[in-house]
Design goal:
By secondary structure, the protein is of the alpha+beta class. 38% of the residues lie in helices and 30% in strands. The protein has three helices and five strands; from the N terminus they run βααββββα. The longest helix has 19 residues, at 18-36.
Amino acid sequence: MKVEYKASFYRTFDKYSMEEQDNIFSTIKHLIQSIERKQLPKGLGMKLLRSKSRLWEARVSDDIRVVFRYQGDLLEFGIVGNHNEIKRYLRNF
């Protein structure tokens, strides 16, 4: 599986503390492992945001979400943020 992080992901990721960044990458690792095993990830609150563009959201914590696209063997991470930041990203997507 190929994993790609967009520039928008890094811009939003950098604002978090080291502990939060560790949690974000731990969530991403869990997500990747689950997809490779063809299992639905447990505890991530997965939510399909847009079916046409195959955008998904996964919960890192109560306040932090990761938006990604999953197509074929590519897992593409677009942004990490709170509810309002995700809504703003989707409006401009």
